[in-house]
Each structure stands twice: as structure tokens, then as C-alpha cells.
Design brief:
Length: 157
């Protein structure tokens, strides 16, 4: 099957996570005629086939088993003057991520908000905590200026 051509509208679109996903869908023949609009519409449907494709794109064994990328001593979470590295994440962070929807987090960070592995996200204290922690699945650093109120419910005494 010959797929129709797709050209990104500008350099920003061409370098986006969404464009990479579209090209991956086309190259793997999962969606040979993928475009950004079609890929986002498919993401909005959240079918098992989409979830499997997104998990494969992210390099996860399945949609329910996300993997935090191996970032070694790279900073993962910064709260005030305390930093947790990727190779030493505390259990309260991994447990919080285990309760999240990894596909929704990947869609949010990769397809709609362009989170990249070397990004540092300054996360507002009143924003969704799991959405922020989802940046760790991409390899980004999540930074809070001070401990947000939700952390008290996640952190051990």
C-alpha cells in the first residue's frame, strides 16, 4: 500500500514529538496514512490498539508497564533544595507513578506538550501531581520551588 505524502507545516512541527510519532506510525505501517490530526484523533479514542502502539513507541513492554528511562545520575525531581536522581528515586515517587495512566501521561507529555528528555519542567504546586510526575517517563526533570501540598500525602513521615 502506498501512503499519501505528509509534510510538516513548519520546522517546529517537523521537530515535534507528535511528528516523530506520526513518522513512526507510518514507518511501522501501524497507520500508513498517519497525519498529526489522525494520530491525535486516534489518541483521543484511547482504543487498545492505540494504547499498544503508544506503549511500543515509548519502548514499554505493554501499556500497563511503563519504564522510566535509564537516566543515571540525571536529576529527576527537585523540590526546593532537595534533588532525587533517576537512579535513586524514592518509593513514594515510583508508587505514585504506578497509580497513574501511563498512556495518558505519554500522550500529554510527548504528543501535546512537547516534553523532551532534557527538559526541566517548573511545575506549579497547584497542578495535577501525577501529570507532573509523568514527565519522568520521558526522562525530564520535574522541579518545584517548594514542597507542594500533595507531597505530604505521598511522602512517608
Amino acid at each position: 500500500m502506498v501512503s499519501s505524502a505528509w509534510q510538516p507545516g513548519d520546522e517546529g512541527v517537523a521537530a515535534s514529538g507528535l511528528a516523530v510519532f506520526v513518522e513512526w506510525l507510518r514507518a511501522t505501517a501501524i497507520m500508513p496514512d498517519a497525519t498529526p490530526d489522525r494520530a491525535l484523533a486516534w489518541a483521543a479514542q484511547r482504543t487498545p490498539a492505540f494504547d499498544a502502539a503508544m506503549a511500543a513507541f515509548m519502548g514499554w513492554p505493554d501499556p500497563h508497564t511503563p519504564r522510566i528511562p535509564p537516566r543515571g545520575t540525571h536529576a529527576a525531581v527537585i523540590i526546593g533544595d532537595q534533588t532525587w536522581r533517576y537512579d535513586a528515586l524514592p518509593p513514594w515517587i515510583t508508587q505514585a507513578l504506578a497509580s497513574a495512566d501511563p498512556i495518558a501521561l505519554a500522550v500529554h507529555h510527548v504528543l501535546t506538550h512537547e516534553t523532551r528528555p532534557d527538559d526541566r519542567l517548573d511545575w506549579p504546586a497547584d497542578a495535577d501531581p501525577l501529570l507532573g510526575l509523568g514527565a519522568l517517563l520521558i526522562g525530564a526533570t520535574l522541579s518545584y520551588p517548594a514542597p507542594p501540598s500533595f507531597m505530604h500525602s505521598l511522602m512517608p513521615e
